[in-house]
Amino acid sequence: MRSFDFAPLHRSTIGFDQIANLMDRVLANDVAQPSYPPYNIEKLNDDSYRITIAVAGFGEADLSVEVREKSLIVSARKADEDADKTYLYRGIATRAFERRFHLADHVQVTGAAHADGMLHIELERQVPEALKPRQIQIASNVSAIEKDVIDASAVN
Question: 12 and 43 in one domain?
Answer without folding.
Answer: no
